[in-house]
Amino acid sequence: GNPSDPKPVFTGYTEQGDTSPGRGGFLYWQDSSKVNGRPGAVRIKGVKVVGNYDPAVADPPSGYDSGISNDCIFAVSPKDVMISECVFEGFAANTIAMSFASSEESHTHVSDTIMHNYGGQYPIFFKSANHPESSLNFTGIRCTMDPLAREDPNYHRAIIRASSYPRSTIRDSDMHKVE
Question: What values do phi and psi take at 70, rounded to 5?
Fold first, then answer.
């Protein structure tokens, strides 16, 4: 599919009374269920998710692991994950954050997806997939930023932070393009 095609639009959840920029998450899971002895699967396809963080007017959040309230997708249990043909914009911390502190095998593939106007030091944050066959793959993703985005002089932004992933690839992707 074409990432420019019209998509269902979801607004990031905001806790009642909370008007902080970028608050709210779209998807969270902490589930240890199994399918035939393996972690289950999650597939997200063809959606646009919009948070309320505007990097041209709001300061970047400090730190990188600030929890679901600032993330678009946040997961703490291993799953096989496929994210494709999506648009994510306006989240203050991690747009996609997965912290699988587990020795179970898991695989994540993000393809044909656009991230725009994100905050945080690591918009894509993957932590601790310790199984030797676990994999993390990006194909055809585009990360764009408003040219007026504020920067925090105390840290440098890196699009992806991934630790303990023994098998990782990035192909045909455009990282940190200013539009």
Answer: -115, 0
